[in-house]
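Justification of resources, computational component.

The compute hours requested in this renewal are based largely on the per-chain cost of generating structure records like the one below. Each record pairs the submitted sequence with a full structure-token output. That output is archived, and it is also reused by downstream analysis tasks.
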Amino acid sequence: MWGSLAIVAALLLTVQGVILRWGLLPLRRVTADLAAIERGEKTHLEGRYPSELQGLTTNLNALVNSERQHLQRFRHALDDLAHSLKTPLALLRSAVESRQSPVALHTLIEAQVERMSQIIEYQLQRGSTAGRTVMVAPVAIASIARKIVQALYKVYGDKAVNCRLLIDPAVCFMIDEGDLMEILGNLVDNAFKWCRREIVLSASLVSGSDDAPPGLLITVEDDGPGIPEDLKSQILKRGVRGDQRVAGHGIGLAMVQDMLWAYAGHCEIDRGALGGARLSLFFPDTPVEKL
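The structure output for this chain reads:
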């Protein structure tokens, strides 16, 4: 009897081991694919996995793609930074070699140093944009917008600006909080700068359709002079300002455009109900309605 029990136990252990090995085979495939990605042999998890692991493999692929895109943005920003600094450095070298007067040399150095500061600020902002990522918590749009508006009320204290927030407190979206503050900060700052008295900042979740995905729509409009038609296609480019008499680097809206590209979004410029410029930003994705 004891011999029979030993044979049955050994048989059961063997069957159990075979079943466990067969059941854990997909996890070993995931481990092997991840190791291949670390070695640079693959770019993502490949092959068909059981339905129980589809969520895991999909999220891992999304994470890998997100990190790769972030690294690529850093590399492109550094390449562009090195390229952009060549011209002002060449001008400074030429000015030193040409032995200009101290006054002219001081003016040139001051202008080129300011230009290099603008270039560095712009390129570093491009590289640090978080962009679409799977590891980000939903952000309450209303609270971020309220903080920015309260800060700008202090900056533009000499203007009697009335900024209305038309944002439901329940509106939340999966976006990096730093990116959102940078985007809203640039847009609302421009509105404060150009408006006469009125600004309207609104944000809402839009449902998807056959032609467009669901996402977040942010609109900023003011009662200022608006943006001329011939500048609408140029205003989002670095260094372009609506009025050269107004102080600024001309890079704020360019930063917004680059951040929108990182989130696969887009910006539209037209004339709003208040008579001034209206900028509408759309971020595609399935939002989270409550924190």
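The chain has three domains: 2-42, 53-128, 138-284. The chain has a mean pLDDT of 77.
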